[in-house]
Write a structure and sequence with these properties.
Radius of gyration: 18 Å
CATH topology: TIM Barrel
InterPro entries: AKR (IPR020471), Aldo/ket_reductase_CS (IPR018170), NAD(P)_OxRdtase_dom_sf (IPR036812), NADP_OxRdtase_dom (IPR023210)
Organism: Cinchona calisaya
Strand order of the largest sheet: 1-4-5-6-7
CATH class: Alpha Beta
Shape: globular
Oligomer: single chain
CATH superfamily: NADP-dependent oxidoreductase domain
Strand content: 5-15%
Domain NADP-dependent oxidoreductase: 2-183
Protein name: NADP-dependent oxidoreductase domain-containing protein
Bound molecules: NADP nicotinamide-adenine-dinucleotide phosphate
Order of helices and strands: EEEHEHEHEHHEHHH
Length: 210
């Protein structure tokens, strides 16, 4: 590609130059030089290689580090958001800074190695879906849309792709939103692959600053 609409720093980590492997080997992690990496992202935008630049899996603290030297603020922070990991504080922080949160794994990434079935198997969501004649996926996606955030949902199935778009001509009732807000919370994607005793993040708490 010689152009992309949105170019993101995938995780707040760097690895040794010249090695392109996933998962990154524990001994290959390096602290990210936020100032230099963000300056290079800005250069990509200035050169017209990308329309917008952003970050992904960044905590408020790490966004604050980027903003302290940024000339162009991140347009987007792409993070896990779904009814089982609602990220209310992060969404509020990003809103104050003019950064759009985009939800990845909005269905909990069901069926993937990093995912959870807690969203699709949620009794609260199932009950709302049944009452409203919608699917659990549609209730989850409508909920995310009502949080004022972007959503990237993934399906390889044509019918499910269509279903996932049919969320714009109805809304959740207040009591339904309230029930969703009371669902027990927990991340699906912990980021363990990005922790290392040799790297900047020894624990998952170091990644998320919480
Ligand atoms: N920035 C990051 O670090 C990061 C991390 C994780 C993911 N992502 C990106 O976020 C996007 C979406 O997240 P994700 O793939 O992790 O999770 P997701 O969209 O929550 O879940 C995808 C799974 O849900 C199934 N699905 C989709 N629509 C459905 C429906 N209506 N009913 C039932 N099942 C449905 C899909 O199966 P079928 O294909 O069979 O429909 C697939 O197994 C992806 O493009 C991914 O690359 C980014």
């Amino acid at each position: 590609m010689d152009y992309t609409d949105l170019y993101l720093i995938h995780w707040p980590v760097s690895s040794k130059a010249g090695i392109y492997e996933y998962p990154i080997k524990k001994e290959d992690f390096l602290p990210m030089d936020f100032k230099a990496v963000w300056a290079a992202m800005e250069e990509c935008q200035r050169l017209g290689l990308t329309k917008s630049i952003g970050v992904s899996n960044f905590s408020p603290k790490k966004i604050t580090d980027v903003l302290s030297t940024a000339k162009i603020p991140p347009a987007v922070n792409q993070v896990e958001v779904n009814p089982c990991w609602q990220q209310k504080k992060l969404i509020e922080f990003c809103r104050e800074k003019g950064i759009v949160v985009v939800a990845y794994s909005p269905l909990g990434a069901v069926g993937t190695f990093y995912g959870t079935n807690r969203v699709m198997e949620s009794e609260v969501l199932k009950e709302i879906a049944e009452t409203r004649g919608k699917s659990v996926a549609q209730v989850s996606l409508r909920w995310a849309y009502e949080q004022g955030i972007g959503v990237v949902v993934k399906s390889f199935n044509k019918d499910r792709m269509r279903q996932n778009l049919e969320i714009f001509d109805w809304e959740l009732k207040d009591e339904e939103s309230k029930k969703i807000s009371e669902i027990p919370q927990g991340r699906a994607c912990l980021g363990i692959d990005y922790t290392s005793i040799h790297g900047p993040y020894k624990t998952i708490e170091d990644i998320w600053d919480e």
